[in-house]
UniProtKB/TrEMBL annotation:
TM ranges: none
InterPro entries the record matches: HTH_LacI, LacI/GalR-like_sensor, Lambda_DNA-bd_dom_sf, Peripla_BP_I
Annotated protein name in UniProt: DNA-binding LacI/PurR family transcriptional regulator
UniProt keyword Transcription present: yes
All residue ranges annotated as the HTH lacI-type domain in the record: 19-73
Keywords: DNA-binding, Transcription, Transcription regulation
Native species: Sphingomonas yantingensis
Domain of life of the source: Bacteria
Length: 350
């Protein structure tokens, strides 16, 4: 008995019938299953038949249903990349390092023949970890600030329920997490400032109590100061408003509480940029009066005035480490947390 042909499906955009593999089969004079095998380039189809099927498909403008094909396969060939952001955040104000990291993850995934599905998520839109269930991706890389507790709680629960997740920026090790070597970066910054003759070195990491990376950078700062016998000066303040504004507020506090300070280690480049502006407005020179070091290594800081000395995170290495960790997770191998090295890039601000 011959297999019945299903009624045509109408494309709502054009009002025309969607070309199916049954149409290609009729045009090529073969069965629908032969069309399927020919388009998958299987050896069971002769070269002459395959050529006839490909010609019929081209003439009809047939496009295979890739989603249906993925459902028949063990893998989607796709990685979901989730960026957890504060609710209502203007995407243009997101730390530029995250965009560097997105590009690095996409590049690392492409080397392995995988695509990226990018998803910005916050409390207002709701958190979504069901990419595997919808057969849209084989697992997730979650990137974001440790301050977004609701988002991290959601993806931690998803991992506990069997979703395949690795993270950058997680506030804990309940998820396999790749991090920068924040403490060592702080050590490099303090040792550099000390070698430049600075003895009153302040730290600005607004909201470090709720920000895991900032907390680690502060710990490294304190340890490095203790190693050379210097006292800490913490002008972090609250995590209110944009990072540049927080940096400016830190300088205002520093001028009020310790005007003899001769250096600032900022927990991020954006905080450092705000500090540079506030120092200039206060009539203080950089690095003459106050030397400044940031952290992240975003592209723009090489062009500010003066160019910013920074502890640069290695985005390409981080992207490769995240993709490798997720692929091991997908393969069922154990995955732990790891660190990516950082390096001090010395410029005019010190």
């Amino acid at each position: 008995m011959s297999r019945s042909v299903p009624p045509p499906e109408i494309d709502p955009a054009t009002g025309r019938a969607i070309v199916t593999s049954f149409d290609v089969a009729a045009a090529a004079g073969v069965s629908q299953s032969t069309v399927s095998r020919a388009l998958r380039n299987l050896d069971s189809v002769s070269a002459e038949t395959r050529e006839r099927v490909l010609e019929a498909a081209a003439q009809l403008g047939y496009l295979p249903d890739l989603r249906a094909a993925r459902l028949r396969q063990a893998t989607t060939g796709c990685i979901a990349l989730v960026l957890i952001v504060p609710a209502g955040l203007d995407r243009a104000t997101l730390n530029p390092f995250y965009y560097d990291l997105v590009a690095a993850i996409e590049g690392a995934a492409a080397v392995d023949g995988r695509r990226i599905l990018l998803s910005f998520q916050d409390e207002e839109t709701g958190f979504d970890a069901e990419f595997e269930q919808r057969r849209e991706a084989d697992g997730m890389i979650v990137v974001g600030s440790a301050t977004n507790a609701a988002g991290w709680a959601h993806f931690t629960r998803a991992a506990a329920q069997g979703r395949r997740v690795v993270a950058w920026g997680s506030p804990h090790d309940d998820l396999p997490t790749v991090r920068a070597d924040n403490r060592d970066g702080a050590r490099q910054a303090v040792e550099h400032l000390h070698a430049r003759g600075r003895r009153r070195i302040a730290f600005a990491g607004p909201g470090w109590e709720r920000h895991a990376a900032y907390a680690e950078r502060r710990e490294g700062y304190l340890a490095a100061l203790a190693a050379v016998g210097l006292d800490p000066i913490d002008v972090s303040g609250a995590s209110i408003g944009e990072r540049e504004a927080q940096g400016a507020a830190a300088i205002a506090g520093l001028i009020d509480t310790d005007p003899r300070a001769d250096a600032l280690f900022a927990a991020s480049d954006l905080v450092a940029l705000g500090a540079l502006r506030a120092l200039r407005e206060a009539g203080l020179s950089v690095p003459g009066d106050v030397a400044v070091v940031g952290f992240d290594g975003i592209q723009g800081v090489r062009h500010c005035d003066p160019a910013l000395t920074t502890v640069a995170q290695d985005a390409p290495a981080a992207g490769r480490a995240l993709v490798d960790a997720l692929l091991r997770n997908i393969a069922g191998a154990p995955v732990g947390s790891s660190r990516v090295p950082v390096r001090l890039v010395v410029r005019a601000s010190t």
